[in-house]
Every structure is written in structure tokens, then in C-alpha cells.
Amino acid sequence: MGLDMYLTATARAKSDLPVAHNTLFPGYRGEEPKATDGYFDARALADQLHLPADNAGQGNYGSTEIEKGSRSGYVKVTVQAGYWRKANHIHQWFVQKVQNGTDECEPNAVSIEQLLQLKSDCEAVLEASKLVDGEISNGYSINADGTKTMHVEPGKVIAETRVAEQLLPTTTGFFFGGTDYDEWYYRDCEHTIAVVDACLAAHAANPKITFTYQSSW
């Protein structure tokens, strides 16, 4: 439950690439692994197509998928290039800059120009944001009378939020996470730059790679 955000990268490949055949298929329920003609090593095929590592190399948050295309002899390979959890300021950027203000959990194509702009905005926010000691939100509890008690703990907050509020404002929604400009907001900007850098490098190596953003909650 809550805001999950995905940036996928997709490329097409001929199904007769060497990596697609005679690869070791993992054993099932204790069986010995065996070579299976026609079995696709998904990650190896993704690497051949220069697709980025899952989530900028920070963890396998989604499997590499292979889908047979409508044209004979081709497959479509998709990797989860980026994943965010309740980074509502990044989500809001995609809604406004990519989805024309419509937020309906539908997949939307993301251009290289848009990725460059996202990176630029994140860099500008980080450049203007200094983290200082403060208090950060840590959820809430429900009292017997139905009221909420907010919980805070020591942490880091952004001292001057003017640029952050202008370029990457936080937003509310159904379990969208906090709206404070704090260390978690800052880290999500850093992670976004890493994701975009990986996508740009992949696209430079294979200009036929396409990108799609989709959220769910």
C-alpha cells in the first residue's frame, strides 16, 4: 500500500542472439540444472542490449522481462531502471512534466529530453539545499479518541526550501508519504540523479532504448 514508482527501460532484440540459446536452466525442486535450447537468460540479454542495471544497481526491485513481439524473430526486453517508494516530489514532477497533469497510474513514455530536465532540476535542488540538524517526521499513532499523535525524531532538514518548493514540490495523496523537505527528500533527489545517469548512459550505448514511467498506490 502506498505510492510505488517505476521507470522502465525497453529494447528489442533478435531472438537468435547467442545468449538466448543453450543457457543453463535452473533446476526445479531439486532437479539438476540443464541446458535448454531456446531458454532466454534475461539479464544477460538485457546486458547485450546495454539496458541499465535494475534501480541504478542499488537492488533488484523488479525482474527483467522478455516478451515475444508481433514480428517473428524478435523479443522485447524490459528492465526496471528506477524504483522509488513514496518519493512524492519525484512523482509530482512526472505527473506535471510527462503526464500533462493527469495522475491515473497509467504508463507514460519518457523522452531523453525529459530525463535530462529531471536530472537538471534535481541537481539545482541539491545545489541550493543545505541539510542542517532538525526534527523529521516518523509516522503517527491513533489515540483512543480518534485523534492523531505525530511522532518526530532527530534528523536532518533542508534549511532553505525555496528552490526545492519551486522545482520539486512535495504533494499529498493516498499514502504518498511525508511532505517535509528533509534528508529523505534529499536522498530521493540523489537517487533520481543516479537512475537518470544510468538511463542516459544506456541510451548513449543503444539509442533504440525507450523509457516509461508508471506509478501505483
Gist?
By secondary structure, this protein is of the alpha+beta class.
Largest sheet: 5 strands, antiparallel
What is the overall pLDDT average?
83
Helix content: 25-40%
Low-confidence stretches: 20-30, 33-39
Strand arrangement within the widest β-sheet reads 4-5-1-9-6
Strand content: 25-35%
The 3D shape can be described as elongated
Give me the strand/helix succession: EEEHEEHEHEEHHE
Radius of gyration: 21 Å
Quote the distance from N terminus to C terminus. Answer: 6 Å
Task: Find the structural class using helix and strand composition.
Answer: alpha+beta
Q: Number of helical segments?
A: 5
Number of strands: 9
Annotate the secondary structure layout:
Layout: E1 4-14, E2 23-25, E3 34-36, H1 42-48, E4 65-68, E5 74-85, H2 88-97, E6 108-110, H3 112-128, E7 131-142, E8 148-158, H4 162-167, H5 183-205, E9 210-216
Question: Keyphrases for this structure?
Answer:
5 helices; elongated; alpha+beta; 5-stranded antiparallel sheet; two-stranded antiparallel sheet; 217 residues; 9 strands
Summarize the structure in words.
This protein is α+β, with helices and mostly antiparallel strands and 217 residues long. It has helices at residues 42-48, 88-97, 112-128, 162-167, 183-205, and strands spanning 4-14, 23-25, 34-36, 65-68, 74-85, 108-110, 131-142, 148-158, 210-216. The chain has a 5-stranded antiparallel beta sheet with strand order 4-5-1-9-6. It has a two-stranded antiparallel sheet with strand order 2-3. It has a two-stranded antiparallel ribbon with strand order 7-8. The chain has 5 helices and 9 strands. Helices cover 29% and strands 30% of the residues. A hairpin with a 5-residue loop joins strand 4 (65-68) and strand 5. Helix 3 packs antiparallel against helix 5 (183-205).
